[in-house]
Amino acid sequence: xxxRSRNIALISIxxxxxxxxxxxxxxIPRPLPWMRFGFGNIIVIIALYLLGFKFALLVALIxxxxxxLIIGNLFTPAFLLSLSGGLLSVSIMGLMLSIASALFSxxxxxxxxxxxxxTAQLLIxxxxxxxxxxxxxxxxxxxxxxxxxxxxxxxxxxxVLKHLSLKxxxx
Amino acid sequence: xxxxxKPNAIRLRPADGILIIILLSLSLSGFILQKSKTNxxxxxxxxxxxxxxxxxxxxxxxxxxxxxxxxxxxxxVTDGKVCIAESSCPLKICMKTGWITSPGQAIIxxxxxxxxxxxxxxxxxxxxxxx
Lengths: 171, 131
Prior knowledge:
The structure holds two protein chains of two kinds. By secondary structure, chain A is mainly α. Chain A has helices spanning about 5-25, 40-50, 55-70, 75-100, 105-130, 140-165.
């Protein structure tokens, strides 16, 4: 992990973008209280493609912590869910990108991320927070939601990355 | 070289579509599995004046005659469906409700203070929500 000034600047820009999106997203009315679009994930995916896994992990960590600080749910169950889901989803996305980068586009990677995020949250909620197996009955709904949100965030990151890759002298 | 500079890495691939299809079918099969598990009507309950009078399995065909506030009410059970066959109440709203078949549904007759409802194997799955 090279902490050259260029990288520090890039991390700051990406992390602040992620935090702003994360906080703005809470203003969107949600049909279900625990549902999130996860637009902040767009930035994490872009960081993953631009800078690599370690930087993306850092962006996700900053997104969850600073975002929670602003929303005001730091160290609440919702924050723990968001943090663990976020970190796990970056890890799986990084893993998928390193073993199968020729197989999946950012859309597929984003689907893996959404899937991991939702599954992790569901498992943590059912084993640690609520301690009831009944929560697992929500799994099909969560799966459906992850496909929907994964496609939306994936399509946006794909478009952004395509645009960035056309710029010859970005870095 | 960053990944995004590789033209192949940011193009839509067949595996994306396959992943979407696999996830959708998994979710669909989960829904179907749950539907068959939870939506089975098990028994029906007849409540009058807040007290449960009868709780019978729904798969035995019977007709139960009750004496309510306004007179006779007949509850009929056939093929796992329940309806009010006859009622002495003035508006007959309970009779017009028709057949009820799945857990959670109910027929209510206000003049007779009567509630006929269907019970399933399972109660609602959600018992807490964190936000």
